[in-house]
Description:
The complex is a heterodimer. Chain A is 0% helix and 50% strand. Chain A is mainly β. In chain A, a hairpin with a 6-residue loop joins strand 4 and strand 5. The model of chain A has no long low-confidence stretch (mean pLDDT 93). Chain B is mostly beta strands. Chain B has strands at residues 3-7, 10-14, 19-26, 31-38, 44-50, 56-58, 64-68, 73-78, 87-95, 103-104, 108-113. Classes of the chains: A mainly beta, B mainly beta. Chain A binds chain B through residues 4, 9, 31, 33, 40-45, 48, 50, 55, 90, 92, 97-100, 103-109, and chain B through 9, 32, 34, 41-46, 49, 51-52, 90, 94, 96, 99-107.
Amino acid sequence: DAMVIQNPRYQVTQFGKPVTxxxxxxxxxxxxYWYQQKSSQAPKLLFHYYDKDFNNEADTxxxxxxxxxxxxxxxxxxxxxxxxxxxxxxxxxxxxxxxKYNEQFFGPGTRLTVL
Amino acid sequence: AQSVTQLGSHVSVSEGALVLLRCNYSSSVPxxxxxxxxxxxxxLQLLLKYTSAATLVKGxxxxxxxxxxxxxxxxxTKPSAHMSDAAEYFCAVSLTGTASKLTFGTGTRLQVTL
Lengths: 115, 114
């Protein structure tokens, strides 16, 4: 089945230690998104790639970076995690950007714990 | 800027009872509106969407929602709750023309009891 895969499902890191979260997709979608979802809060868009074009949200901290080496993979790098970065990180994909025609498909998420 | 407000962070219904999850939106232009469901340890799944066609939208698993411009609402309903409906439900809005950005509400956790 075509799907969005996130690894690892659970990640524990230390305060200030860089961490990378991985997302892969078999849907061959052009767009890949990263959302941050803190406990009991709404998912918040961090950034997205439209093909190789990177689109950062204005309020995304510089501590968060992303890479998309090819269509299938996208990485979220947190350069110096703080306690406030503990959250569920959701990856999503869509064929195009117009939500009228393009459903976003979500992965199961990676839960990040910062010690 | 667009936003959605979900009234009630927790809703509990008996199996077989009506499910009503409330969502109100704020938007300066006609929006697209969405309901997503999130089961434990899973990603979000699209239930249904309103994109300016019919105001009553039918989705998967027997859910439907009605767009009411006069009330700026997009409430989610299901006539008869099933135990498998227990999950977190998110309302989301996107403005026409801005393409990529979904803005989510804070979610409503639905509990279904016997």
